[in-house]
Amino acid sequence: MFGLFRRNKTHDLVGVPTHSMALISAAQPIKPMKLVEFEMAEQSLSDVFDWMTEQSHNRWINGGHFSLSDQMIGRYQLNLSRYFGSNSLPVVFTNSTETLLHALPLLHSTSKELGIIHIGNQFENKATLEPEVGSAYHFALARFNEFRLFCIGIDPRVQSEHAFEYAEDLGCDWLTLPECQFSHRLQVKQQVTNYLSHCDEIVLNIDLESLCARSRLEADRNLDVQIVTRIIRQCLMSGKVKLVQLVGWKDKHVFAKSTQVILQELAGMVPSSDQVA
């Protein structure tokens, strides 16, 4: 839905401030995921760094793998905070968007507006008593008034009318999947530009399943990876991105060609060694 933004101010692009990317994997046990599914997710995510380094020779830092039990959440947050205070951009592979809830307290500031750009087919705003799959932004926006959410690629065929109404109540902005076709790329770019102008810092969350066609008959239900890489590039060039989170737990999504394209786009935005000095 175009034209949702109420204020009009612009910022010049300041370039990419990061000197490297730190790849972190985190597996979070969360309802209603079954134990066997969590164990599969843990195995896939723990293999991500080795797989990624086989695909590319770019300079990635191995930020480690974390199984987010109650005892490990503090260590995960400490690890993230180290990167937030450095010139390395943390890129987190995780099995659920709800992992973001552990990072947001570290980025919260009453003097800055944090924007979350969620790229995926669903709002993930399910109102539940405790975090479960699909509830991340219900909790994020309820806990932090300074945050603003922009969802890109919402599929009206899989979202209820209530989900749209609740997203509006939460103050979310969104573009539907039909509005994100490659033919609309200039409109998408303008909406992202407007959104970035309202935010001091940005978190990018990308649902990997939303980039993968379920079948040949449903090819129109996945986001165009070209649109996604354009958004990534635009956000990184703003100099405002503090965290990138890639969400998936099945091998066919985590190790997909579209995921590799995203990693290549991220790595390509890191200055070469002769620029870092």
TrEMBL record:
One of its GO terms (molecular function) is hydrolase activity. InterPro entries: Ureohydrolase_dom_sf. SUPFAM superfamilies: Arginase/deacetylase. Keywords: Hydrolase. This is Arginase/agmatinase/formimionoglutamate hydrolase arginase family protein. It comes from Vibrio ichthyoenteri ATCC 700023.
